[in-house]
Design brief:
Elements lengths: L7 E7 L2 H13 L5 E3 L1 H6 L10 E6 L3 H11 L15 H14 L8 E3 L2 H5 L4
Antiparallel strand pairs: 1-3, 1-4, 2-3
Length: 125
């Protein structure tokens, strides 16, 4: 018999393979079983990741609060290194934009978007 707290709920959405795999490993390393869907389909056709709505990272409903807490804690922006100016990355960013414009190929989507705790807590069967 399946209990309601055994159902999987989405706690984050990933758009890059590396970020999604690291996030799933991070959650599993803290004892929270996690799965990314549709990771296999997106690995075959990475250009369809946005059309698929990203790769949803799902955990059991009973562990959703702990997963949201860990992801919110981990999502804090890193502090810049001392002595390194944020302006040093601008030439690379401008070159990337120019390459994408000249080749007319959009850059692949990247990043992890964490679902708010209120949205996950409001999930009921």
């Amino acid at each position: 018999m399946i209990r309601p707290d055994d159902c999987l709920v989405t706690v984050a959405t990933g758009y890059g393979f590396a970020e999604t795999a690291v996030t799933v490993s991070f959650l599993e390393g803290h004892g929270i079983p996690a799965v990314a869907l549709p990771y296999q389909l997106a690995s075959v056709s990475w250009d369809m990741t946005v059309a698929l709505g990203g790769m949803e990272i799902r955990v059991p409903a009973r562990l959703a609060d702990a997963a949201c807490f860990l992801l919110a804690e981990d999502a804090q922006p890193a502090r810049p290194e001392k002595g390194r100016s944020p302006w040093t990355l601008w030439p690379r960013r401008i070159a990337l934009v120019l390459i994408c414009l000249l080749t007319q190929v959009p850059p692949p989507p990247r990043g992890i978007y964490v679902v708010g705790r209120a949205e996950v807590a409001g999930y009921r069967i």
